[in-house]
């Protein structure tokens, strides 16, 4: 609900500015925003990856089941994890989906 209010406030503030822009300017603005989103996502991925080290115990949820495992390796956007219980599968998981076991 708060998100809707924020969106309306944003639209109310910037709609007049966008309306005055040419198509060429709008395309340029769109490209700039897309680039910024990519940079921001990349930064957030790196921050999430930095929280994990080889050997860390982690857990994650998939299809309503909670799995536990151990970090084997960190990649650019994902973490390789080995299950600690049979069938001892290995997973490649987005770092945002993992929680460290305490």
Structural description of this entry:
There is one protein chain. With 102 residues, the protein is α+β, with helices and mostly antiparallel strands. It folds into two domains: 2-50; 57-100. Helix content is 46%, strand content 28%. The chain is built from two helices and five strands; from the N terminus they run H-H-E-E-E-E-E. A five-stranded antiparallel β-sheet has the order 4-3-2-1-5, with no helix packed on it. Strand 1 (57-62) and strand 2 form a beta hairpin. The protein starts with a helix and ends with a strand. The mean pLDDT is 92.
Q: What is the overall number of helices? A: 2
Low-confidence stretches: none
Terminal residue distance: 34 Å
Shape call: elongated
State the share of residues found in helices, binned by percent: 40-55%
* Number of extended strands: 5
Mean residue pLDDT: 92
Structural class: alpha+beta
Q: Main beta sheet: strand number and arrangement? A: 5 strands, antiparallel
Determine the strand fraction and express it as a percent band.
25-35%
**Widest sheet, order of strands:** 4-3-2-1-5
Order of helices and strands: HHEEEEE
Give the C-alpha Rg.
20 Å
Tally of distinct domains:
2
Oligomer: single chain
């Amino acid at each position: 609900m708060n998100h809707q209010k924020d969106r309306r406030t944003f639209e109310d503030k910037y709609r007049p500015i966008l309306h005055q822009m040419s198509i060429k300017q709008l395309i340029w603005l769109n490209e700039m925003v897309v680039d910024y989103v990519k940079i921001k996502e990349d930064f957030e991925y790196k921050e999430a990856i930095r929280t994990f080290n080889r050997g860390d115990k982690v857990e994650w949820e998939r299809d309503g089941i909670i799995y536990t495992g151990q970090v084997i390796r960190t990649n650019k956007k994902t973490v390789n994890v080995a299950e600690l219980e049979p069938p001892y599968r290995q997973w490649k998981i987005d770092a945002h989906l993992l929680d460290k076991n305490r």
